[in-house]
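Give me structure tokens for this 252-residue protein.
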Amino acid sequence: MIKKKILIVEDESIIAINLKEVLIELGYEPCGIAPNRSKTLALLEKGIQPDLILMDIYLKGSVTGIELAKELKNTIPNTPIIFLTANSELSTIKQATDSHAYGYLLKPVKERELHANIELALQKANLDVKTKEQLNSIENVAKTLEHTLQESKEEKLTLITLKYGYVFDIEKKVLYLKEDIVSLTAKERDLLALLCQQKGSYISRDQIEYSIWPNEPAGDAAFRSLMFRVRNKLHKDLIINSNNIGYKIARL
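Here you go.
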């Protein structure tokens, strides 16, 4: 069985050595002793990866154990920290709690309490990691679903459902009859796209000519030829004509 590695951050050398010996007796692997912030960071930079940290609240130097614990949450967020202190004041306990500590032990530390707190902290940290992974997984699934729904929504917005079994893809300018693509020329596709964009409203002949032949007048023959060809390929009532208003397409 792989022994759990525990880093001791304690500025009193005698206490640190005693903790190391107790940890060994309990079956853990002390992976280092540091008296302050700089030594702690130096050990971590060397590649030490503790499964848990025993942290004295009052360390040598300007940075307290609580401040160091908050800093380490950014670099080793999944490593549980148990605080050690001779101070039992409520304000100190509250500060330790606010730093998301996994335990709080008063010195001198009793072996049984130390063992129990370490095991509880390791179990809770493991559970927290699994919960975080599950939440991330759920979040990723939700994002994927949202993206899929958005794509589906966008795709639906480009598809215009017409009467008589026709569907027109406004973006690709492709007309479908059930699953088959209806063969159309470029200007025939332009005409259908123009009519579909009107959302069932009539569009005048002049507007049609200007849109499909923007650079030159179509002429009566060209316009009638286009309409005749399109209507010949489609259901006879798909394009509706009102002599006084113009043309529109039959949408559902």
